[in-house]
Amino acid sequence: MLGSMRLEQSCKAEISRAMAEEILSVFEKAGHSLDVLKVELRGNALYVLNPVSGIYELIGLARMPPSMSHL
What we know:
Distance between the termini: 32 Å
Structural class: alpha+beta
Shape: elongated
Strand content: 15-25%
Order of helices and strands: HEEE
Radius of gyration: 14 Å
C-alpha cells in the first residue's frame, strides 16, 4: 500500500539529541497507551502534539540541512 502512495512534499530538518530526548519524554509521560506521536515542523520549529492536553508543544528550533538552505 505504501508503494502506491504519492507524496506531494517532503520536509527535512536536523534535530539535536536534546530534542529527540524531549520527544521521548512525551512518550514516557503518556504511558504505554501511546505508540505514535504527531510531530510538525513549522518554519524551523519542531512541535509535538501532547496527547494529554491536545496542544502542540515546542520541542526546539530545527536547523535546516544544507540541501535546504535555498529556502
